[in-house]
Amino acid sequence: GENVEQHPSTLSVQEGDSAVIKCTYSDSASNYFPWYKQELGKRPQLIIDIRSNVGEKKDQRIAVTLNKTAKHFSLHITETQPEDSAVYFCAATPVIARFGAGTRLTVKP
Amino acid sequence: GAGVSQSPSNKVTEKGKDVELRCDPISGHTALYWYRQSLGQGLEFLIYFQGNSAPDKSGLPSDRFSAERTGGSVSTLTIQRTQQEDSAVYLCASSPGTRGTEAFFGQGTRLTVV
Q1: Is A30 on the interface with B (CB under 8 A)?
Q2: What pLDDT, in 10s, does the model give residues A81-90?
């Protein structure tokens, strides 16, 4: 099955700075790469996803980039705000089953 | 329903007892997943159902864990002879099943084994 590695495990930034989280995957057949955000005590929710036919996707302050050759993809959050503080998980499919270990992002006011 | 529903939301059980956790997926979703999340940890894959195909049980940690999905809808995760290390939040998710689609999570069942 797919093996997804996620780095860093923790990330602390000042409000307004950018944050970048990276994931690598092993299965070259993977074609869908979602990112989930889990706030404390809540369920994970999808924040952005990308498919293998594009290299980058943006949604306001959030972007995801994909490098299929190198088998890695990254989540970029610009102009971070305290409400961005959460744990972020990546996954690589064709079938969503296994997630990366997660990144705990703390945005300090 | 409007979303993935799990019951109970909280369960406290004595060590050695069996427990059953229920998941009602979004209507029409053919894919259903179970995950375990220990405090402050990641999403540990347990089992995956897709339509009528044989489930992917590769994540089940021991033979005390089993799951079934009846009629392609509701799923039950059963833990036999519970141990203290089974204490965690058990999350269920469902998706339309088409490869490369969003999975929607339930609110989870917090299991505490005392």
Answers
A1: no
A2: 999 999 999 9
